[in-house]
């Protein structure tokens, strides 16, 4: 019986940048640990991990909710929204399976 493997994906620089920004956003909650940070932002830990890695990204409304939960100023929110919009247009690309 073969084992199930996940398709590797190449994450765009825009998604990596947004992931780093989301990590900073999580750290700004002053919660201790990723689980507590995720709870402070209103999302499950596994979802926050996928957003930080660039594997997935939040919906626009969910992202706005996170920005408000983190208490960002209006100019900071605009910077985050611009990064979200750039990442939205650059989804991860599946990599070809290695040849046997």
User: Low-confidence parts, pLDDT < 50 over ≥5 residues?
Assistant: 1-5
Radius of gyration in whole Å, from Cα? 15 Å
Helix/strand order, N-terminal first? EHHHHHE
Which strand order do you get reading across the main beta sheet?
1-2
> Which sheet architecture does the biggest sheet show?
2 strands, antiparallel
Q: Please tally the helical runs, counting DSSP H or I stretches of 4 or more residues.
A: 5
Query: What percent strand?
Result: under 5%
Seen as an oligomer or otherwise, the chain set is: single chain
Q: Find the structural class using helix and strand composition.
A: mainly alpha
Specify the helix fraction band. 55-70%
Distance between the termini: 17 Å
State the shape.
globular
Average pLDDT number: 86
How many strands? 2
Structural account:
The protein is mainly alpha-helical and 100 residues long. The chain has 5 helices and 2 strands, in the order E-H-H-H-H-H-E. It has helices at 13-27, 34-41, 45-53, 60-69, 74-88; strands at residues 9-10, 93-94. It is globular and about 50 Å long.
């Amino acid at each position: 019986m073969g084992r199930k493997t996940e398709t590797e994906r190449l994450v765009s620089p825009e998604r990596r940048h947004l992931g780093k920004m989301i990590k900073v956003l999580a750290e700004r909650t002053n919660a201790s640990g990723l689980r507590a940070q995720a709870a402070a932002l209103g999302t499950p830990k596994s979802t926050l991990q996928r957003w930080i890695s660039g594997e997935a990204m939040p919906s626009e409304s969910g992202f706005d909710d996170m920005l408000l939960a983190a208490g960002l100023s209006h100019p900071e929110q605009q910077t985050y929204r611009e990064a979200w919009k750039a990442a939205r247009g650059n989804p991860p690309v599946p990599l070809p399976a290695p040849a046997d």
